[in-house]
Design goal:
single chain; alpha+beta; four-stranded antiparallel β-sheet; 23% strand; binds iron/sulfur cluster; binds FE2/S2 (inorganic) cluster
């Protein structure tokens, strides 16, 4: 069902049930975000996407990523109140994460006044993207939030040696600040993947044909179970598979 709203005084027709953020983006209105991702359900953690809405005589400040449009709604994405609140929010984030380039860039773009660093400084902005991607997209539930208040942070169960983590690295890819680190190394003769942030080490499978490290064992098992791909296919490296395809094409 189509409804009518106004965004920054511009009349817009849109589908009922859409989020304010999606509708705004669809009509070229830019709203800053840090915890929203098109592959994930709305979460509302960073609050940077706040907008001011007026509907049926009530004015409210809401997170645009978790609030749906209503017929006749007036939405202001850059009112004075919103600009001031966003500056405060991003200023607080910038003081907590002084080494996160994405946060410092936003602080500069929004003209946020620098605040004294608030210990403990780290790179994590608690956006939850890593936790949600692990659960909603990868389907592993290896990550969750642990602790409260200032000490709340993403973690694996018991903070180390996760038995659920499959070493896919999605958390490191989706993290906007570079807070999640991993690396591959040799443990004697055996290749391993070390998820530094989660203090978890996984053994890595070698290619059946030429012996080069391919992927963590648990990742192979996870993909094989979910996608019904033959074990043989997943146990060979890309160059061996590509070479086979070339031979077949000759
Ligand atoms: S580790 Fe990265 S993705 Fe996870 S909550 Fe922190 S900033 Fe967000
Ligand atoms: S993008 Fe809406 S709260 Fe983070």
């Amino acid at each position: 069902m189509q409804i009518s709203i106004r965004i920054d005084n511009k009349k817009v027709r849109c589908a009922k049930g859409e989020t304010i953020l999606n509708v705004a983006r669809g009509c070229g209105v830019s709203i800053p975000t840090l915890c929203s991702h098109e592959a994930l359900l709305p979460y509302g953690a960073c609050r940077l996407c706040i907008v001011e809405v007026a509907h049926r005589g009530i004015r409210r400040i809401v997170a645009s990523c978790t609030t749906t449009v209503q017929d006749g709604m007036y939405i202001h994405t850059r009112s004075r109140r919103i600009i001031a609140l966003r500056k405060t929010l991003v200023g607080l984030l910038a003081s907590r994460c002084p080494d996160a380039p994405v946060v410092q860039r936003l602080a500069k773009d929004l003209g946020a006044a620098p605040m004294p660093p608030a210990p403990p400084a780290d790179l994590c902005i608690r956006c939850g993207l890593c936790v949600r991607f692990c659960s909603e997209v990868v389907g592993t539930e290896a990550l969750c939030f642990a602790g409260k208040g200032q000490n709340r942070k993403p973690a694996v169960a018991f903070f180390r040696n996760s038995q659920e983590c499959i070493g896919c690295g999605s958390c490191a890819i989706i993290c906007p600040t570079g807070a999640v680190r991993l690396h591959d190394e040799m443990n004697g003769e055996h290749p391993v993947r070390v998820m530094d942030t989660w203090e978890t080490t996984l053994s890595v499978l070698r290619c059946r044909s030429d012996g080069v490290p391919v992927a963590p064992e648990r990742l192979r098992a996870h993909v094989a179970a979910r996608c019904q791909i033959s074990e043989g296919f997943l146990e060979r490296c890309l160059s061996c598979k590509t070479a086979d395809t070339r031979i077949l094409q000759r």
